[in-house]
């Protein structure tokens, strides 16, 4: 039976993942948190020792904070344990660390573990590939009031899909946080807008707009269970993969 370890175990997602693992019949080896105290379930300890957890589990799931990523990756490399990373707010330096780790162990990184969002990304890629750059692409997301990063990891994932479809680099064409006299929209830009409020689990909309018509493709998460179940499915799949970097497409057969 696969044994799962959870980095960020006491958080909203950490607890949802522990529950989904138990429902799927998997063992939860334990978890880490910033403080490293308490229990995830009766007899399942939360510590602040990523190496001990990586040694105790068959596969790790990280839904914590970007600042914890380097130590979590080091622990997984030292223990030779695969890791699924769902933490968002990652910068270029974090992706470089993930690329390095993926030369030593299996690593799956994704801004969204749900089937629906990953299918949406495939649809967005297809739409962007089919339409010229006289179609403006805008990505709007809304999340709960506690979310600390923007744009969401999912919005960036969808932006990457749109850029791939269009054959461009997202970093060179993204427009974030318009305010004041911004000037007219740059042709070929991919725009992002982030809303925060209440308890929204995760809403994403990709708008493709041209003169006289627009297409809207979207996804609404009604709760965190879809992310937690997707993380369990992804981690179970990853435990059987060779060294390398993966996303959810292989897991979901997309
Ligand atoms: N990929 C996906 O499908 C999804 C990704 N996410 C992402 O997952 C992440 C977590 O989200 P959520 O659970 O809502 O956030 P929470 O703030 O509820 O949980 C994050 C947890 O990480 C803990 N933490 C902080 N520092 C460390 C550390 N050094 N080691 C281990 N744990 C640490 C925090 O502890 P403390 O509170 O004490 O600081 C907290 O318990 C976010 O980046 C979010 O965007 C969320 C949903 C789906
Ligand atoms: O912080 C969240 O809650 C979520 N984060 C992920 C993101 O940044 O896209 C995934 C999901 O939308 C929920």
What report would you give on this structure?
This protein has 254 residues and is of the alpha/beta class. It has two domains: 3-109 and 224-252, 3-Layer(aba) Sandwich (Rossmann fold), CATH 3.40.50; 115-221, Dihydrodipicolinate Reductase, domain 2, CATH 3.30.360. Helix content is 37%, strand content 27%. The chain contains nine helices and 13 strands. The strands form two sheets. Strands 3-4-2-1-5-6-7-13 form an eight-stranded mixed β-sheet, sandwiched between helices. It has a five-stranded mixed β-sheet with strand order 9-10-8-11-12. α3 runs parallel beside α4. The model has no long low-confidence stretch (mean pLDDT 97). Bound molecules: NADPH dihydro-nicotinamide-adenine-dinucleotide phosphate and the ligand O=C(O)C1=N[C@H](C(=O)O)C[C@H](O)C1. NADPH dihydro-nicotinamide-adenine-dinucleotide phosphate binds at residues 7-8, 10-14, 32-35, 63-65, 68, 86-89, 110-113, 153, 227. One of its GO terms (biological process) is diaminopimelate biosynthetic process. Residues 3-112 form the Dihydrodipicolinate reductase N-terminal domain. (S)-2,3,4,5-tetrahydrodipicolinate binds at residues 144, 153-154.
